[in-house]
Amino acid sequence: MSDQIQFIVEKLNQEPFRKNYNLITFDSLESMQLLQLLNDVLGEIDPKHAVDIREELPEQTAKRMLSLLGILKYKPPGSISDLSAFRQGLVTGSKPVIHPVLHWLLQRTNELKKRAYLARFLVKLEVPAEFLQDDTVADINKQYEELMEAFKNLHKECEQLKTSGLSTAEIRRDISAMEEEKDQLIKRVERLKKRVETVQNHQRMLEIARQLRLEKEREESLAQQKQEQKNQLFHTEQRLQRAQLQLKEMHHAVVDSKPESLMKKLEEEINFNSYLVTEKIPRELESKKNSTYFLQKVVAEPAMSQSDLNALEIKINEVNAQINQLIEKRMMKYEPIDSKFSMYRQQASIISRKKEAKAEELQAAKEEMASAERQMLQKTNEAHELEGSEVLKGDEFKHYVNKLRSKNTFYKKKRLEIAEITAEYGILQRTEELLKQRHEAIQQQLQAIEDKKGISGYSYTQEELERVSAVKSEMDEIKGRTLDNMSEMVKKLNITVAEKKASLAPVIKELRQLRQKCQELTQECDEKKIQYDSCAAGLESNRSTLEQVRWWRVSSCFLFYLIYVPPNTFIIFHACIIVLSYYIEPNKIIIKLFSISFREQYTRMILEQENLGKKLREKQKVVRESHGPNMKQIKMWQDFEQLMECKRECFLKQQNQTAIGQVIQEGGKDRLVL
Questions:
Q1: Is the C-alpha dihedral spanning 579, 585, 588, 593 positive or negative?
Q2: Domain that holds residue 550
Q3: What is the model's pLDDT at position 342?
Q4: Higher pLDDT, 318 or 121
Q5: Is the Cβ–Cβ distance between 596 and 588 less than 8 Å?
Q6: How buried is 108 (Cβ within 10 angstroms: 0-12 exposed, 13-18 middle, 19+ buried)?
Q7: Cβ contact 276:358 at 8 Å
Q8: Is the pLDDT of residue 12 over 60?
Q9: CA distances, 47 to each of 24, 28, 103, 111 (Å)
Q10: How many separate domains does the chain show?
């Protein structure tokens, strides 16, 4: 109870109440103050209840609070199981009644605000059945229910949109994209219109296309009607089969049943119907007549203003209060003489009420059974329409029900676990808030003490130093791990290099032999080449002298023919020159003039350059592909070189330190000897 009161006081001291209570002042509140406090909390949940309870009667206050608590689905604790005692405690402002209500309300204020807001629109207004017989009232009630359902759907959509995470910026982008798409479609339609206008008889073609579209739509509608008629025929056949089956079952039931059971069943139906005709329906008819008489009387009276209605309500409340007081006085007196008669009367009234309730339950059960049978037939038809699957019966249905029950129990268990986790989360969240508040208060006190002692900022500096030391230790640990990883990598690389050396040793040995043999062959080749060059030079000098002789012979023949041969025989001379060009080297002037053209030379040069360009492009492609890995490998080797250099320096420093330490130790030993 102390934790409960402490929680209430903490919540009331926060926004939006700001009461500035402590445990003593809250415990010393009077009943009216407690009721006003409860009313303020209810007014925060539902603004309609933000009133001063001194301006209304206690019965009105209790009725209003009870109605709101019922809407909020508040259940009294186990110690206040009797609703009349709870109502009496609420009227009198009893602490054992008010404190649990305040604790329950302050625990879930936001949830209750939402529930109160929804209750304004979803609490159905009960209209008497006699009023619903009027068509206007029935239509308005139907519209009211439809609007309520529409509100439910809109609220669900609103909650889904809130939880979906869609922002206004995304919606605006979607709208702008849709507008752009719309503009594009409009432009496309305009372009198509302009393109169609250039075609001859475009109006007639458009009319034909429109008629074709209408005929296609008509064809689709006719096909749909045909399918619907097929479905209706199938349903009719199914109903006929079910009716025949029911007829057979009824025949079997009549054949197997006995007259005594049929008579007993008929007697039960006759008794029930006679009870309805003789007792229930006349009583209901009498009540309807009375209510109609009172309504006619009210309609016949002149119109009443709001003040008259208020006065009547005050009188009704006073009369109700007097009736309650008289009942309480009578219960307090409790005359023993009339105790037996009152007990019998009470028992008779209880039995009559039970009888009426059972009759209503029986009638409702019959109506429910009829509706269930209709639904069963409808669902059976739907099942046959879909796949023709059979309805579960007997043991299969029992197994299915047991499976559903097990799932339901599992669901309830998980739901309880979720509720417990949620409650524990709320407690932990509250504990976290309290610890944060205490931490802030302690920090403020510590800062005040530091200011007082003249060492302000000492705690902050100490925290920063601890944080920096922690960060430094983490960095040192990371560096140590990095060095360990690098040393392991170096070991692995050394092992790999040793393995590669071992595997390449026989290959290198063979390579050395092959290199020696290659050098010997190269020397021999050079000697042969020198001999070849000297022989070729001699032959070339002889050939040049012979070509000069042949050249002078041909040129002399050519001049002879130019001078002495007639012009008609120049073609024969040209043929002779072509024949002679096969016996002369191509670098001479005559062969260049008559056998080789410039086009062939440039074509050959172009082909050579194109082949060279292809080779260069392939080489460039290979270089580009291997550029990234090669650069990465170079970077890795540079890092490895830096790492080895760093290790070498560390090793040298360590050797120097060990040498200095040895010298110092030796000097100390010498001093000790001295």
A1: positive
A2: 489-565
A3: 60
A4: 318
A5: no
A6: middle
A7: no
A8: yes
A9: 29, 27, 19, 15
A10: 3
